Amino acid sequence: MIKPPRGKTPRRPALKKPSNNSNLKDPVGVYCRVRPLGSEDQECCIEVISETTIQLHPPEGSKVNRNGEFKETQYSFKNVFGLNISQLELFDNVAKPLVDDVIHCKNGLLFTYGVTGSGKTHTMTGSPGEGGLLPRSLDMIFNSIGPYQAKRYVFKPDDKNGMEIQTSVDALLERQKRESQTSAPKTPSRQRPDPEFADMINVEDTCKAEGIDEDSVYSVFVSYIEIYNNYIYDLLEEVPYDPIRPKPPQSKILREDQNHNMYVAGCTEVEVKSTVEAFEVFWKGQKKRRIANTQLNRESSRSHSVFIIKLAQAPLDADGDNVLQDKDQISVSQLCLVDLAGSERTSRTRAEGSRLREAGNINQSLMTLRTCIEVLRENQMYGTNKMVPYRDSKVTHLFKNYFDGEGKVRMIVCVNPKADDYEETMLVMRFAEMTQEVEVARPVDRPICGLTPGRRNRNQAFKEELTRKLEERGGPVNGDLENPSAIEILIQSLPPLPPCNLVDVNDDQTLPRLIECLEKRHRIRQMMIDEFDKTAGLFKSMLQEFDGTLMAKENFIQEQRGKLGDKDRVITGQKSEVDRLEKKVKTLEYKIDILQKTTNIYEVDKRSLQQELETKDQKLQRELSEKRRMEARMQGVVSNTKMKWEKECERRVAAKQMEMQNKLWVKDEKLKQLKAIVTESKSERPERSEKPERPSREKDMVKKRSVSPSPVPVR
Q1: Cα 187 → chain centroid
Q2: What torsion, rounded to 10 degrees, do the Cα atoms 293, 297, 298, 299 define?
Q3: Which of 38, 412, 688, 698 has the most CB atoms around it within 10 Å of its CB?
Q4: CA–CA separation, 44 vs 55, rounded Å?
Q5: What residues does each domain of the chain span?
Q6: Are 270 and 237 in contact (CB under 8 A)?
Q7: pLDDT per position as a tens digit, 467-501
Q8: Helix 693-707, helix 510-682: angle, nearest 10
């Protein structure tokens, strides 16, 4: 696996083979901090439900509440800090892991986000006795690397986002040069510390990192910039003051180094050696930061500020005495602490002129940040490949490498619980909750120096042992005033040279006195040479003895290295097994996630089908009841119709019977008439003449019967 060069900040190289953990990603850690209300009579719209959840209540009488657009909503974060949280607890949970990563050569980004007046600057800076994240991060770094700091100017920035190493002689010359420049301004360490920030952190709150590489030397550089109206300005830049024609500060530009990482070109980087000195540099730049008095905040930040802590680290040489003069072995890590300006609405601030332009630029940059987060989230969740608009804002362009996998990203959402900020707070909560779904690749571990460990301690132990043996065999070491060595005694016994001015020709005392003094000094010098030879022989024997001991130790070390190699192979095998199991666990978790999602889909389908079945059952019951009512109604109609038809049939039958009877009666009458006629024809004919009226009377009766109305048929 190709490691990034240690001469630059260890970020993503241009060409790099994928490492074992290149596919491992961690979500962006989002934390929420709720500040106390300004006064007790203010209405509160936020309630802390648990350590990870808060709930927003619409304010009473608001338009949102009357229209019913929004209801009480809950938002979950990695951790929620309530009203009584201290700065120390916040630092331990959020910033301390980032500082520990920086000390172990990994980058970190921490920024505060929220509406104006929500406590972002207080969270980052703090107050006397309650230092914020920035001074506590500096304090932890210097507490950890304090005994292992390099001398000033050993590390030197190369103005290309990297570091160079100077020799001890060059560093000494540069220190003397800086000290001799009396006309130059004094360094912050020589200035009198600001009493307001001299005691930001209590002694009992100090902490330090574990696992410091004792075979390395460290140096801390800080820089402070602000992004105002989408322009970058250096807050630590020394500009000569011209009372006649004062020059405005010059904006800086962003550049890309050879490893495709963004940095601010020409930014001032100050080397600091203590927490107080570093915070003084910060406070010096803080006084230049642009703030203004608005309707919502008395000291509202009008720009985004970025405080960069850069830690340079280089290993010691094989002797454990000097810094290894190898540029490729330099490792540079940095922690960026960003205090974003608060979003605000002009309808509430009533901003005009330059304040209105500042608010527009602030909101535009925050909107660009939201857009970048949304596109990243969409690309990761749905597999799209949309271009993330980092270049639309200096804030996103400067920190694009962090979202591409150059370090951990943490965000603290600061919230003001007053009801007036409800709508803006709700937008902030939505953005923060969405940010948690963005994943950032884990940074690559730095390569370990190939030299043997424990060089510093071994060198110190050798010096102590050599001093002890010199005291035992050759007397005390040089410089011991209480027990001077033999050579020092001889040096002290050297007689001073007498005056050798010859005034008189007959002077026979000056030359003999001078000759005697020189002979004595010659004898003492010879004694010093003998003593030096004796000491050199003793030292040579000691070195030979030490070489034997060293050879034995080297053999022991080689044996231990062999055992360590075996252990390393075992560990490598176990790591490969662990990686395999982790991949298997990831696969199973992915499958479980898919099954869970499928189960949820089936549950939703099941519920919808159950609801549909219940609806159809209800509809069927209604149809059955309607059918029963229809059957009952039709039965009544059928019975009524049947009765009517029965009556009608009876009436028709009766009418038909009457008609038939009438027809039979008519036929009978006709038969009777025919019979009578026949009878009369056979009887005596005179009788017919005697009774002529009878047939006509019968005919009239037949006509009357035939004319009588017949029964009307029923339709």
Answers
A1: 36
A2: -80
A3: 412
A4: 11
A5: 33-441
A6: no
A7: 666 566 555 444 443 445 565 666 666 667 677 66
A8: 180
